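Researcher: Hi, I'm a grad student and pretty new to this. My advisor asked me to get structures for two proteins we've been looking at. I'm not sure of the right format, so I'll just paste the first sequence and hope you can take it from there.
Model: That works fine. Here's the first sequence with its structure tokens right after it:
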Amino acid sequence: MAKCRICGDKHWTRNCPQDPASQHRGTPSSSEDASKPLVGIFFGDVEHFVKDVLDRTLVAALPWLLVVADSVVGVVTGEEDVDETRCLPLPDFVACPFVVVGKVVPEHADLIQRIARLESLRFHGGASIKVFSLTGPSPQSEWSFVFKHVVPQFVSQCQAEEPQWFLPPNQKDGRMPMLPRDGIPFPVDRVGVVPVCSTDSGLFIFLVRPPDTHGQVWTTIGGSVRRGRPGDEDIFGTCRREWDEEALAFPFDYALEAGADSYLQHVVWKANGQDWKNWSNCLPAGCAVENGGVSSKEVVRKGESRERLKLRHRDGLPFLEQEKGAWFRLDAESGRLFAHFEGAAVRGDLGFTVLLSEDLRGRLFAKFDGRMALPAAALPAAPLVPHDVIVSPEGLKNKLEVLKFSFGDLRPEVSTERLLRCVSDALDHPGEFRYQFYPEEVEFYLSCGADPLAVDGLPTGVNSVLQAVLLNDTLNKNVAFRSAEHLCRACKEKGRSLVAEELHLLQRRAQSSTDDLRPRWRQLAEQKPGRRS
């Protein structure tokens, strides 16, 4: 978060309540205006129901959900006959990041009680809605509003109602904000469940991967804590639910070794068969667990049509998040992972943070010290697991550090090849997440000596790496700008001016850009065209 140039607090200067100009942007300036009664609604996984079944925004879905809450007993499927005219008038709600917030005005004095009925709704998969009251200025759809007004009050209420989520950390990752001297200011938000197996060849951990269309980075089974009713009782309950949701063919009680000391809890503030491929990942009725996870039972997969996605909400079909799993050997000294196949990449928030914790590795290996290990035949021996696992920047902000950790100093020719491949794959596969890249990748390859003027391997009709970036309209706006900025600077250092077609694309970007980036795009485009060498 940026440091405000007016008051020094951690928010954008344009949002500072002490800025006189803020009155013209709708930012409250008086203490009276800043303490209005508000109501907040966390939809959690119900957001998927609203998107897949109702095909509405969260705000637009409120009247439908409120009428259903008054009339439906049982699981909500989206097939209900709903007369939305029965819904009493509502004030204007604002969709903020992660939460919907509305003002409680005098004519809607019973608003919080009415909205609280949403907590009684039940959905397939156990998803639920959390309603809470707070005070603050008029809601704004900006992160600054959420961090300053919503999060502190929500956390305070959570501490009073559900203290089991406030656990001291075993590890702190990244720069921590100023913390109070007493108490724990952060509730646990997400869990990762990592099965560990001890063999004669060492320790192995089990990771999973989503369908190819959603990336090829290995990660842990896990997800967000489900608070409120009918939420998770504690951390162990969250782990059990997430495991049973994602590893459908292997129930939690079957996969976990019995006993209270069968797991380690590692809190981080801000981790089957050797080639487990279970294309449905669901245990069919009457089938033995030893089936290896392969079955013919119907499931709903990521990326399927909206009509298919409706089935998880209407009929309660299992939603398949992970398609593949594999065991990875964990090196006790370094915390690095090794695989029995080439090209594996693990999420940065696991491979660059959790597994690098010497405390965790020490506790983990001590736990298995003296225990009977599985025979070497159970999993591949160490020499058969020789391939380094790359740590992906996914999941972390310090992506440049992660890339340096994974690749070290690449040779210039290798860096050039990787640079050409990443921008070309993204352009050839528009909108496909697994082919998109980070600007830090462009920066890293250039720092290793990649040639920004190379063209061999670019798609047909594309005459420069910069052009490949500028032609890709599906790139995130910040990714596109920062990548272009790195490439323009690299071209200048090579003594090559931008050519007319590149300047034209930069000007096009400036015209279509958002207000915050438009001046910076124009600055890149303000130079005389050169000749292509």
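Researcher: Oh nice, that was easy. Here's the second one.
Model: And its structure:
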Amino acid sequence: NPKIEPQYYLEQMLMQCEVKLNNGHHERNERVFFLKPWFFTLGETGSAVEMKRQIRDSCVVIGEKRHDKRIIDLMQKSAQLWKISEFHNVRMPNFLRNFGFEEHEKHVVQMTHFLRGHFDELWIITYCVVLVINGLLISWGTTDTVRDEFFEFRILGTATCRLGFDGIQLIGSEEEKRGCYPYSLVFRLLSFFHLGFATLMVVSWGLSNGLANYYEEPPTTNVGNGKATAIPVGFALDKMRLQQNNESFVQKLKRYTTLTRRALGLSMIKYYVVYGSFAILAAVHTPMWNAFHLVDIITYSSHLKDILLVTNRHYLRLLATVFMGLIFVYGFAVIIFVFFSDQIVYNVDDDLVFMCDTLWGCVQRAVDLGFRNTPVFTRDPVPVITPLFNLLYFLTINTILVSIITGIIIDTFAEMRETRDQVLEEVTTKCVICRKGHHAFDQSRNHKGFIHHITVEHSIWAYVYLKYHILAKANYSPETLSNVELFVAKVLLEGDSKLWRIIPLHETMHLKDDSKNKGNDDDSNSSDEDDE
């Protein structure tokens, strides 16, 4: 039916999970069939797909987490998914009702869903406007001014059309301004286009990746003796609305102030505040401020983020190396000032410049030029001291220190690539749930293959949905729990740390009837460090 959205198809809604039951005497595996909770169905489009990939990859880091820890992290981090859906489909409509916008609720929610799913398109349009503005800055900008201003814009293809530093005001005589008025609107229109699309882009980010960052810390509540992930309010809308309707104005103000303070603490919010400030300055002061917006590609491109992550990952090592280099340079500067102040200069572009007249000046020259060039003796070289000093300076400053910094960066790139390759191999060759390798399923005569196993039989997201499905029934309709669901509910109510007890490890009932493959799975039976 074309009127039904794909996420509501039965194949997308009907879930199955294999769980391990243990009553203290014997173990057996059973399957649980259920429908995906509605808040996951509505909240897993657009940016949620990339978020699910990031959650999955972070939970299978090689050599750092045991199998039970991976499952616990998966369940806790998955709270981001339903919290985002909860914001769009529960909290925002409730917010609109509280402030009297109930008649516009449907349109606002539809608009937020549209913006949430089109961040990439909005970013591309915004960045293209930035590229056009900066292209005009490069083409028209000149310091050859006709007035006292230090900078102006000369329109290419015209003989007399010039714009002032603000990019709006025409300069020159009335005769020179004739026919130039349309050019005075170019930067103004582009700046306002940029402001408009940038606003939509930031809102779209806030409704998608921004909410993911906002809800990065899993919401928790104490249940029994353990700590379990909170129950989505989608299960108890009436209760939530009753609580909020009974709030006083001061209580609502405190709640919204707390939420706003938490949002302003996000690093990307701070970045977008600076971004918006420069956009406003570009519109009201000068378009030169748009040069800053070219940096925005770093926040969008994952490859450029990795480059920044390289320096951030081992920044203490880099800072320590640079500090050590400054100490060595200072030491050499003191030696030069005391013993060779009238004999040494620095070589810059084959010109001997910057003699050390004072210690402060010598230190400045050494820091500024010493990392790039070795000091040069201009007269009275000492036969042994001079070449030894040059050799020590060259090896210590120009070779060893630079090599250390380069080595740290290269090693970090290698670590990141190795981790990424290991994660990719882990999620494509082994089942995250049962840890059995792909050969056991692909070589089976009675099984549909490994892809079918990890997407249908042991889908990690089906286990996430199972958790909230069981917790909802246990909290609001416990009498409807089956025997299997009752056992799972008891485990879940003990806290996330006990969740591994229901996960089948190195076994699955889907291969039990295939005697050919029983015991032949080298991948699953090999000893994994993370499962020891």
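Researcher: Is there anything I should tell my advisor about the second?
Model: You could mention this: The mean pLDDT is 76.
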